[in-house]
Every structure is written in structure tokens, then in C-alpha cells.
Write a structure and sequence with these properties.
Strand content: 35-45%
Distance between the termini: 33 Å
Radius of gyration: 12 Å
Helix content: 25-40%
CATH architecture: 2-Layer Sandwich
CATH superfamily: RelE-like
Number of helices: 2
CATH class: Alpha Beta
Shape: globular
Oligomer: single chain
Order of helices and strands: EHHEEEE
Length: 80
């Protein structure tokens, strides 16, 4: 199984740090999942952007792009 590097951008890091502790822990678990399974059940293509996905689970929505050796996270927000 290929493990990709997970790279959150500055906006995703700011959103992550603003989350309540429980949701922050969920987000980190999602990052870990995406490192080994960048297209988990429930993830779907996002906005017609090549290799971009939206994954809503555990009270969060994560937007990200999959590359050969990495997953770039660009949004992490509470699913309200």
C-alpha cells in the first residue's frame, strides 16, 4: 500500500487550529486515512477540479487534491 505525504496549506492549518479539540482529533485521523487511502468510501470529485475531492465524515468536510506522492489539504471545516 502506497503512503502519501499529507500537506495541509496555510488556510487548512488555520482552520484546523480553530476547530474544537474533538473535531481537531477527527481531522487528524482523516489526514492519516487519506495518506493511505486518498479516495475513501464517501469521498467524491469536487468542483470539476482535476484530482480534487470532498470528503465529509465525523462532523467535518475536507477538500483536497491527490497527487502521485502527496495529498494536499486546502480546506478543513466543521460540517454544519
Amino acid at each position: 500500500m502506497t503512503r502519501r505525504q499529507v500537506i495541509p496549506d496555510a488556510e487548512a492549518i488555520a482552520e484546523l487550529t480553530a476547530l474544537p479539540p474533538g473535531l481537531r482529533e477527527n481531522a487528524l485521523a482523516i489526514f492519516e486515512l487519506l495518506a493511505t487511502d486518498p479516495e475513501p468510501l464517501g469521498a467524491h470529485p469536487y468542483g470539476g477540479i482535476p484530482d480534487a475531492y470532498e470528503f465529509a465524515i465525523a462532523g467535518l468536510v475536507v477538500l483536497y487534491t491527490v497527487e502521485e506522492k502527496s495529498v494536499s489539504i486546502w480546506r478543513v471545516r466543521a460540517d454544519t
